[in-house]
Amino acid sequence: QSLFIKMMFVIVSKMMKITLIAPCVVVDWIFSDEMRLEFERMWTLELLNSAVDCITSHLRYTQKKLENLHRETTDTKDSNKKHSSSSSASESDSDNDNESVLTDQQMAALQSEIENLRELLKNLLLNILHKFMMKLTEHIVLCDSKDVDVNTSWYVYVNGRFNDFFMENWEELFEFCDALEEELFDPQIIDVQIINTYKKFISLRS
């Protein structure tokens, strides 16, 4: 079974990397009823982090491409200024204008891709946290209705994975703090235990 799980993790991770399957689909699968038993295994948390890494890696790669293009454009402009001559100024200016238009289009395309990836990343993080919160909230409500202790072994484990997800993806989550507070962590709606987890995470930034 251990070998099967390792193979499953590798296969799903590779499928996300080569875009055969979207990270959001993997997240929905992990939190689905059919994965209820496997959800308590460590590999599912690792796969959640892999889903986030899939997008963050693509985002960083695209940002790097844009930075390199900016640098190359600056170097080219400096080089053209040094080597331009009055005899071929008109032809050189025309070539430079064409190159500039092409570069601007490339930059615009990369910038658009970055914005789309950031939105995709934000939505994925919100989705994962929301699903964690729903699982924990359902458990809390059920325990309250039966007047039993909330802190079962299941709750302690899942709440621990909830905390781990914050710590594993702290950089990306801090970037979207405003969206988290606006769309998820409303203290008037969310259970105090879940809010406390978020507050502990936010306190690390200060």
TrEMBL record:
Residues 70-100 are annotated as: Disordered. Residues 6-171 form the MIF4G-like type domain. Gene3D superfamilies: 1.25.40.180. GO terms for biological process: mRNA export from nucleus; nuclear-transcribed mRNA catabolic process, nonsense-mediated decay. Pfam families: MIF4G_like_2 (PF09090). One of its GO terms (molecular function) is mRNA binding. This is Nuclear cap-binding protein subunit 1-B. GO terms for cellular component: nuclear cap binding complex; nucleus. Residues 70-81 have a biased composition (Basic and acidic residues).
